[in-house]
Write a structure and sequence with these properties.
A: 115 residues; mainly beta; 6-stranded mixed β-sheet; 4-stranded antiparallel β-sheet; 0% helix; globular; B: 116 residues; 11 strands
Chain lengths: 115, 116
């Protein structure tokens, strides 16, 4: 079984600043994938970024990047130049190659952007 | 194709009634997932289909819950004899997955159930 832990229920950042959201996970699988999803208020969940566990290079998507520490089972999300539209719930999720259970999600971090 | 569509968006019902939610996935996607999300929590896996076959069910899916995907296209999730504890957002997601590899799910906007 996989578990995903997000220890920050809420984070706040000033517009244009940088914020890092934490995530740790536990899995016995050697082949797995990690994701960050964003869920804006009353809107659908969308994929922000993904990381293949076999890749050492950290994934980057524009202002979003991850710090993947495989040995520590840590997968944090860094948002640079925060914008008001980044305000949302952010969920960390894992998926193993066997894939029967789909994604396993953390409880989420509520990100507030201060103008 | 406009993505994953879920209906109704919000359903209010009285305890003991039956409700049904529908999900229309992205047409070329072979996998379809149902998740449940309660306030302050991340989505929890309920069940998934590969084409029309239901391949996995969570222990969260009691015998009052049933899901179908009769032709491998849309899916329905029915809850019989609803209880107040069933109040939640029911999320549908789809993906195209063959063999191994990252399984990138596309989510619908969800169907919110309120049981009075």
């Amino acid at each position: 079984a996989q578990t995903v832990t997000q220890s920050q229920p809420e984070m706040s950042v000033q517009e244009a600043e940088t914020v890092t959201l934490s995530c740790t996970y536990d899995t016995s699988e050697s082949d797995y994938y990690l994701f960050w999803y964003k869920q804006p208020p009353s809107r659908q969940m969308i994929l922000v970024i993904r990381q293949e566990a076999y890749k050492q290079q950290n994934a980057t998507e524009n202002r979003f990047s991850v710090n993947f520490q495989k040995a520590a089972k840590s997968f944090s999300l860094k948002i640079s130049d925060s914008q008001l539209g980044d305000a949302a719930m952010y969920f960390c999720a894992s998926y193993s190659g066997g894939g029967a259970d789909g994604l396993t999600f953390g409880k989420g971090t509520h990100l507030i952007i201060q103008p | 194709d406009t993505g994953v569509s879920q209906n109704p968006r919000h359903k209010i019902t009285k305890r003991g009634q039956n409700v049904t939610f529908r999900c229309d996935p992205i047409s070329e996607h072979n996998r379809l997932y149902w998740y449940r999300q309660t306030l302050g929590q991340g989505p929890e896996f309920l069940t998934y289909f590969q084409n029309e076959a239901q391949l996995e069910k969570s222990r969260l899916l009691s015998d009052r819950f049933s899901a179908e995907r009769p032709k491998g296209s849309f899916s329905t999730l029915e809850i019989q004899r609803t209880e107040q504890g069933d109040s939640a957002m029911y999320l549908c997601a789809s993906s195209f997955q063959t063999g191994s590899g990252a399984n990138v799910l596309t989510f619908g906007a969800g169907s919110r159930l309120t049981v009075l």
